[in-house]
Amino acid sequence: MTVPGDERRQLEAVGEVLDSVLARIGGGRRPVVMVIRERWREVAGPGWDQGEPVQVRKGVLTVEVRDGGTASRLRYDTAPLLRRLSGLIGAEEITSIRLRVSRRRK
Fold it and tell me: Which of 6, 12, 72, 95 has an alpha carbon within 20 to 30 A of 103's alpha carbon?
C-alpha cells in the first residue's frame, strides 16, 4: 500500500548509504578495507582473486589466502597490486601487503 504523495525511492548502493551514515556520526568515510573488498575483483588482478582482503592497519593490507602455495606465488606479485590499489584509494593509504594463510577451509 502506498501513501499519497509518497513516491518510490531510488535504490542506492549500500556503500553510498554507509558513507552517508558514517559522515553523520563523525566517522568520516568508509574504512579503506571496505572500499577494497567492494572492488576487489576489479583491482586484484590474476591470481589475487584467490585471496580476500581482511584488514588494513597502519598502511598494511592483509590478504588472506587458502594455502601456503598461493601465498608463495602472490608474494612476488605485490608491486603491481599496490599500483592498482594506489589508483583506487590513493598512494598513501596502502604501503605494503601482508599475506596470511586462512585457518578456515575455503
Answer: 95
